[in-house]
């Protein structure tokens, strides 16, 4: 290939992956002229947080089901088996130095960037591409992370949290996730008890 590969990285817990993640990935693919977007599910948490995540293997499988068929999208499992704390900088440093990297973040996640471990190195290694997220003022992102490129995207007021709640209470969420993901959640009863 001539020139450097331009790779977008969209990380998340993906519990479950939903259409706003996918639309954000495609928006960045197009607007930042990327060659590919990698979806990176986070590994299982090393400390018990407020809520236990769905096991990494199932979150990875849902991500595969959502992304597999889409041109320009790939699943990357390099964070899945990492034990102990996962730092974005460590993930970025596993890529070949000739590859141009772009972190794709929702506005809520972007606001936290200056608190990340070795964040100055993060923004040195990767471009920061931000998509709008309802509830976060894009002007606050521009002020907090001036290096970020803020993309235009229709705001989608969807979260994995709200999908888990809908599924657990038997309310509709079918069209908020790809149909294969919906089928997988229902067949395994993943969010039946919370
Ligand atoms: P949860 O409710 O469990 O936190 P989530 O929907 O926020 O789930 P994450 O896996 O936490 O999803 O997010 C992964 C990335 O996708 C983050 O950068 C987040 O900001 C972004 N993202 C998630 N939902 C949206 C959305 N509706 N619009 C824009 N960005 C989003
Ligand atoms: Mg979130």
Tell me what you see in this structure.
With 194 residues, the protein is of the alpha/beta class. It has one domain: HUPs (Rossmann fold). Helices cover 35% and strands 16% of the residues. The protein has a six-stranded parallel β-sheet, with helices on both faces. α2 packs antiparallel against α8 (179-188). The longest helix is centred in the first third of the chain and has 13 residues, at 19-31. The relative contact order is 0.18. The model has no long low-confidence stretch (mean pLDDT 94). Residues 12-15, 20-21, 24, 105-106, 108-109, 131, 133, 156, 158-161 line the site of adenosine-5'-triphosphate.
CATH topology: Rossmann fold
What's the CATH C level? Alpha Beta
Shape: globular
The DSSP helix count reads: 8
Number of domains: 1
**SSE ordering:** EHEHEHEHHEHEHH
From the structure provided, what is the oligomeric state, counting identical versus distinct chains?
A: single chain
Number of DSSP E strands: 6
Compute the average pLDDT. Answer: 94
- Report low-confidence residues grouped into runs of 5 or more: none
Largest β-sheet summary: 6 strands, parallel
Strand order of the largest sheet: 3-2-1-4-5-6
Work out the helicity level: 25-40%
The set of bound ligands, ions and cofactors reads:
adenosine-5'-triphosphate, magnesium ion
Could you give a quick summary of the protein structure above?
By secondary structure, this protein is an alpha/beta fold. It is built from 8 helices and 6 strands, in the order E-H-E-H-E-H-E-H-H-E-H-E-H-H. It has helices at residues 19-31, 56-67, 88-92, 107-111, 119-125, 138-144, 160-168, 179-188; strands spanning 6-12, 36-41, 73-75, 100-106, 126-131, 149-150.
């Amino acid at each position: 290939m001539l020139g450097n590969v331009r790779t977008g990285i969209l990380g998340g817990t993906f519990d479950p992956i939903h259409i706003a993640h996918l639309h954000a990935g495609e928006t960045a693919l197009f607007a930042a002229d990327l060659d590919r977007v990698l979806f990176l599910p986070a590994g299982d948490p090393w400390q018990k947080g407020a809520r236990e995540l769905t096991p990494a293997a199932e979150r990875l499988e849902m991500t595969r089901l959502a992304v597999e068929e889409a041109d320009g999208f790939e699943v990357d499992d390099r964070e899945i088996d990492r034990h102990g704390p996962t730092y974005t900088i460590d993930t970025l440093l596993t890529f070949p130095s000739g590859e141009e990297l772009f972190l794709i973040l929702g506005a809520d996640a972007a606001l936290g960037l200056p608190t990340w471990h070795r964040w100055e190195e993060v923004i040195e290694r990767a471009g920061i591409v931000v998509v709008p997220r309802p509830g976060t003022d894009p002007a606050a992102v521009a002020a907090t992370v001036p290096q970020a490129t803020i993309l235009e995207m229709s705001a989608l007021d969807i979260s994995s949290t709200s999908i888990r709640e809908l599924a657990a209470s038997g309310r509709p969420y079918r069209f908020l996730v790809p149909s294969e993901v919906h089928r997988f959640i229902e067949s395994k009863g993943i969010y039946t008890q919370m």
